[in-house]
Structure formats: structure tokens, C-alpha cells
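Anyone able to model this chain together with iron/sulfur cluster?
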Amino acid sequence: MSTVEARGTITIAVERCKGCELCIPACPPRVLRMSADHNETGYAYPELLPGCTGCGACLLVCPDFCFEVYQYETPILHEVGAIGDLGGPES
Ligand code: SF4
Ligand code: SF4
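re: yes, here you go
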């Protein structure tokens, strides 16, 4: 078990997503990953893992305006089960 700090969060308009994946590498802390599920149009869409900084890079890069970004006044701590949950190396 480890703790990850989130300084912000996002909302994702899943039904507008076209699955282009531009947001995935654009996220500096790499806390976005594509879903296994698909939206009604048939596209996979991003999901948020713990650790968003509220930087807004996803909002800037998305051609379909799927993101809204919020910054917390006080960071929130998330407990995560394993490093692998964040897409990093397995511990
Ligand atoms: S706001 Fe920044 S840290 Fe949060 S999901 Fe978007 S790109 Fe990643
Ligand atoms: S950049 Fe936008 S349209 Fe492309 S996968 Fe991410 S949310 Fe979907």
C-alpha cells in the first residue's frame, strides 16, 4: 500500500471521446489510461488514475474538448494498492 497525492482532478465527457489517445502521453504524471470498455460510438476513452496535478495538459491537447480540470485548494491523498496500479513497474 502506498499513498499518492492529487492536487487536482478532471471530468471526462466519455461520450464525446473519439479514442485518439492524444491525452495519454500528454499527461505529465501519466495518470490517464485508455479504458477496456467502449462508449456508445465504439471508442475506448481515458480513465483517471490517482495522482492528477490539475495541470490542464489533457484539456489543451484534446481535439474534442472532453476534459474539465479542477485544482484542489488542499491536496487529497489516495491510498493505492500497488505501484502497478499507476502503470509503473510492478513491485
Ligand atoms: S490535468 Fe494534468 S495531471 Fe490531471 S489528468 Fe490532465 S494532464 Fe494529467
Ligand atoms: S484526447 Fe480527447 S478524444 Fe482523444 S482519447 Fe483523449 S479524451 Fe478522447
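The chain is about 10% helix and 35% strand.
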